[in-house]
From TrEMBL:
CDD domains: Asp_decarbox (cd06919). Belongs to the PanD family. The active site is at 25 (schiff-base intermediate with substrate), 58 (proton donor). Gene3D superfamilies: 2.40.40.20. HAMAP family: PanD. It catalyses: L-aspartate + H(+) = beta-alanine + CO2. This is Aspartate 1-decarboxylase. It comes from Vallitalea longa. One of its GO terms (molecular function) is aspartate 1-decarboxylase activity. GO terms for biological process: alanine biosynthetic process; pantothenate biosynthetic process. The modification Pyruvic acid (Ser) is found at residue 25. GO terms for cellular component: cytosol. Keywords: Autocatalytic cleavage, Cytoplasm, Decarboxylase, Lyase, Pantothenate biosynthesis, Pyruvate, Schiff base, Zymogen.
């Protein structure tokens, strides 16, 4: 049996842009993706601390060390620049894999710089 487990999280990321006319997804700074072990094209859940919205989308790699967190397409209606969000990546694992897996949690500052890692 497979269960869905959190593999990585960017906690308290600040939205830097919202592009309604883009084809869809979330663009994330490549460095932050690497730290949280999030891959381009991977499905993520976005939780907006400002308005309570929750959505699922896929990731597009943004410019490395830019701090970019940009909601694209329809997702741009659920978050605005300045909103604080949590980006959570998941993967399917067996129970045995899950028992031994430690997710990568990246705590961010208001400037999307790394404050702490767990």
């Amino acid at each position: 049996m497979l269960i869905e487990m959190m593999t990585g999280k960017l906690h308290r990321a600040v939205v830097t842009d919202a592009n309604l006319n883009y084809k869809g997804s979330i663009t994330i700074d490549e460095h932050l993706m690497e730290l949280a072990d999030i891959l381009p094209g991977q499905k993520v859940q976005i939780v907006n601390n400002n308005n309570g919205a929750r959505l699922e989308t896929y990731v597009i790699k943004g410019e490395k060390n830019s701090g970019t967190i940009c909601l694209n397409g329809a997702a741009a209606r659920l978050a605005q620049p300045g909103d604080v969000i949590i980006i959570i990546a998941y993967a399917l694992m067996t129970r045995d894999e899950a028992k031994n897996y430690t997710p990568k949690v990246v705590m961010l500052t208001d400037d999307n710089e790394v404050e702490d890692m767990a």
